[in-house]
Amino acid sequence: DREALDEKVARNYILSGEADLLLIVADAANLERSLYLTNQLLESGTPAVLALNMIDVAESRGMQIDSEMLSETLGCPVVPIIARKGKGIGELLTSLSSSLEQSQWNRFRMEYSENIESAIDKLVSSMSAMGGRELFSLRWRALQCLEEYFPPFTTASFEQECRGTGAEIKNETGEDADSLIAASRYEFAHQIASAVITQKESSGQTWSDRVDKVVLNRYLGMPFFLMVIYLMFSLTVNFGGALVDFFDITVGALLVDGVKVLLTDAGFPSWFQVLLADGLGGGIQVVATFIPIIAMLYFCLSILEDSGYMARAAFVMDRLMRKLGLPGKAFVPLIVGFGCNVPSIMATRTLEKQRDRILTVMMAPFMSCGARLSVYALFAAAFFPHSGQNVVFLLYIVGIGAAIFTALLLKNSLLQGESDGFMIELPPYHPPALKSLLVHTWERLKGFVVEAGKFIVVMVMVINVLNSTGIDGSFGNENSSKSVLSEVSKMLTPMFSPMGIEEENWPAVVGIFSGILAKEVVVGTLDAVYTRLENDGAEETEPFDLKAKWEEAVTTTEENLIEAFQNFGDPLGLRVLDKGGNIDLAAEEQEVNASLFGTLVKYFDGKIGAFSYLLFILLYVPCVAALAAVKRETGNRWMLFSASWSIYLAFSLAVGFYQMAYFTEHPLQSLSWVGLFVLGYFMIWLALRRVGRQFLMVDQAVQAGA
């Protein structure tokens, strides 16, 4: 776990011998540091071309690099470029093409200390005696073995010889062989840089240095970081969210309502309509609704990365996050989770270590997303009309506490250890290139839609089919008491009685199941089911009109964008709570029947029962899109653990709160429930320490492809 995945993937590919040519991109402004890796790669013997990127930054610092001398010293073509502006790319492509045609091994060689050179000669002789086709320079392969990296095909006897040779070097010099090799490489890189770089003038303080005096200031760094994250959060939630309705309405009209009309006119049976329109079409509709938010998030993250600020943000937050065993970078995905858990989970890719990514992914679903806020606002208007903001704030705090508790549990059981010592290069600031931002955003977005989308569609199909299918085999029973989903909810309602949900309140359980599809669906489900329940199943169906749907999508998007500008300072959307004191305004804001508020009061056990339900909604299994993201980033077993752990945490806290609220009425029962949950937490901790590591091994495919 000490090696970052991107480093491991790159190294394994280079060592596979599949590359015909290596393109080495070095930072011209920090040439000496870049030459260390360059020397390692050139020693392999693989043909290479060195691209000196950011040559403009080097020149702005008064540095003049003799690329011809550098090329002669390294034995490979050297091409100065400015990748961000596209300068030098033509010359680079020409050099690459020419080098591929020649396809000659690189003859670069650097000298090491006498002990290392003797060991290299000895090991090269042994490898030559073995015979076989070598993909790399034998000298380089010997260096790799002295650094204790052995390819899979290495024989046991040769590995033993290498280790013995390394032990002899340590006995003679008191230093490990890899330390001596590294020292020689650093010295050689310094000599080359000194020879090819001419400092025309004193560079003094750069513009980046002056900005960093504020950005990295002990007292100003944190407020500035929070301001940047708040800005990113606002853009993602307000402007990305403003486009959600457009995708939702248009895709729903084309692939759900439209397909259903076509199938009906063609005479297809109801079950086929449900499967194709509600199932497949509904699944694609759910995936489409996440596209604008995820795209906006990745666009903002790309700006932070390409501008050079992401490295500063990680440095600023490192001390705080280290207490949870995480690096500073982990704070950014968690903050994003307040907007949407899906991009939050996907954003963990910016973390280098697999352990850090898993820990952050397990925390992310407990960040209260914007979709949950719609449920909070509904219940706040019904039960807490004058203190809704306090209740919502408390729920956000509980979610943060659950995330921290999860991190501490895993840190002290399955994912023991601390985050590695933090060392990071602070690149100079520069304006990001729009083309680069769009490419990065598209690649990440495509990965989510293709990989996570498949899982989402299947889950949506299952839930929608159960919601439409009646217990008598009929179809078209969406959000009614006759559907299979409703019947299953009625059967499971007694399980929720310890948190105040009685049998006649089975629609609340239907809302829980529909929330697995998407948390914002809970409000619509509760409105539809409770309204049908109160009105004996009567419900009007609007005729399908594609033109009207398109006009609705465009009009709604325009209104959302206007509202996004108005609410730019309120990314959490808490202004909706201001309408809690007026039932009609609250109903209009959330697009539900005003009678729903009275119905909720009728079926729930007062404020205590309502808050218990909100605790469960906050903490239980995230939506299918979030689960798909967890699966993509960590594998199947971690996804199952995340879902199971969140359900247990939600049930235990919701029941525990409800039971302790009525402690005076049944003290023995309340203490029994609390004691049972405490014992459960202890057993989970023991299980994670003893058998969890074997069960929750990260999928090899995830490790290789993340």
How do the helices and strands line up, and which of them pair or pack?
Blueprint: H1 5-16, E1 22-27, H2 31-43, E2 48-53, H3 55-60, E3 63-65, H4 67-74, E4 78-80, H5 89-102, H6 114-130, H7 138-146, H8 156-173, H9 177-196, E5 197-199, H10 207-215, H11 221-242, H12 244-265, H13 270-307, H14 309-322, H15 331-336, H16 341-346, H17 354-363, H18 370-383, H19 388-411, H20 434-468, H21 484-492, H22 506-517, H23 521-534, H24 546-566, H25 583-590, H26 595-603, H27 606-619, H28 624-634, H29 636-661, H30 667-695, H31 700-705
Parallel strand pairs: 1-2, 2-4
Antiparallel strand pairs: 3-5
Helix pairs in contact: 2-9, 6-7, 6-8, 11-13, 11-24, 12-13, 12-24, 13-20, 17-19, 18-19, 18-25, 18-26, 18-27, 19-27, 20-28, 21-22, 22-23, 23-26, 27-29, 28-29, 29-30
Summarize this structure as a short list of keywords or feature phrases.
disordered C terminus; mainly alpha; 67% helix; 2 domains; elongated; single chain
